[in-house]
Amino acid sequence: MIKFTNANIYRNSDATEILVKDGVIQQIGNNLPAAEEEIDLKGRLIVPPYVDSHLHLDYVYTGGGDDAKNATGTLFEGIARWHDVKKTQTFEDAKSRMLKGIQEEVSKGVQYIRTHIDVCDPDLTGLKAMLELREELKDNVTIQIVAFPQEGMYAYKGAVELMEEALKMGADCVGGIPHFEWAYEFGQDSVRKTVELALKYDKLIDVHCDETDDPMSRHVQLLNALVMIEDIGTRTAASHTCSFGSADDAYAFRMMGLFEQSQMNFIALPTENAYLQGRQDTYPKRRGLTRVKEFWENGINISFGQDSINDPWYPAGNGNMMNILDNGIHLAQTMSLPQLDVCLDFITFNGAKTLNIEEEYGIEVGRAANFLVLDAISPFEAVRQRADVLASIRNGKYLFKKPEPSYDIELDLFRSTI
Ligand SMILES: [Zn+2]
User: Fold this and answer.
1) d(Cα 48, Cα 213) in Å, to the nearest integer?
2) What would the pLDDT profile of 402-416 be if each residue is shown by its tens digit?
3) What is the pLDDT of residues 158-188, one digit of tens each?
């Protein structure tokens, strides 16, 4: 039995103690029974583990070579560069890069990842490596795999068959990229196929949807309608939807009501799309973000993801979800004081809802003792200070623990000059 004391629990300000036995939370409250081991958290904020709801693990660390150089900084050139890069991909190379990417994310407090894996590859090399890692690492990190046709479901010959193969092999979600197909009608066909495959194989849906500044890219409308008809909105996510940030207000108003009805999830990728979008604009220059603020204020579920770690689309990225949150709330202008108190939801609960893991996620009695200790005393302070993760605990055990931060700066030296 372990007792964590002096905790400030996110979304549960009444309790300060957590009692854990065999990796499961037994009690949450105050003045709980003594335990063999007691850990004083010194008033720090405890949050459920970070969820990265959108990442491409097969691409990580491929951004450095000449083949990967993306001169225009656009999504479309990134796809062309990846086409060349992946020709040299081997199973061992893919698996070792993926492992390193997962380690980077886990070292920043992520315990749940949804990764898209490109299935436009007759050998399905990346998928095979990812399936192995998902199993090998399941005690440390929960991974969902999206069968993702990066080069188009119809633009790439044989992609639909490869999608089906990937779903049979164990991918969790059906992906798509309708805005990349060669004609709008093919994009619409791909959305229909995505929903058809999800129903056929009983899988979740996560579509790269309208990742363009073109306000007429409106595939999200068909996706939303189809999943609403099938009543699988909560099992569906639309990633990016950048064009919705450029769309006409009358269309957006109509769609907002329909999104509320379908309860479909949205995923925004703030750093990635701030970098990739607006590339055809002079000034004013768009920042590539969907209508995050309006989704949030209308109760439509939206989470943030990292998307890329050093790949042909985006040179930076390190799995630090606090950095993603920081960028996202600035770009979305969701920084009123009440919003700052709850915006950690973007990288925790909202991501869990998108992944359909709500029943196992969160700091609650009877659930696995999975949580983070942040170097801050409140949600507001955590966001204001971009707080570091001091410890990540999974099934009651440390995935990592950092020493107490200490500083050698002699502040008295500065005082006389102020
Ligand atoms: Zn993506």
Assistant:
1) 34
2) 988 887 766 666 665
3) 999 999 999 999 999 999 999 999 999 999 9
Q: DSSP assignment of 277-328, as one string? A: SSTT--SS-------HHHHHHTT--EEE--B-SSBTTBS---S-HHHHHHHH
57 conformational bin, left if phi > 0, alpha if psi -120 to 50, beta if neither:
alpha
Spatial contact of 49 and 370, defined as CB atoms under 8 Å apart: yes
Copy the structure tokens of residue 197: 């495959």
Ligand 1 center–CA 209 separation, angstroms:
10
The string of DSSP letters for 163-211 reads HHHHHHHT--EE---GGGSSSHHHHHHHHHHHHHHHHHHT-EEEEEE--
**Whole-structure pTM value:** 0.96
**Per this entry, what is the length of the chain?**
418
Q: Which two tokens stand for residue 95?
A: 């698996």
In three-state secondary structure terms, 261 is helix
Catalytic status, residue 211: yes
Distance 398 CA to ligand 1 centre (A): 30
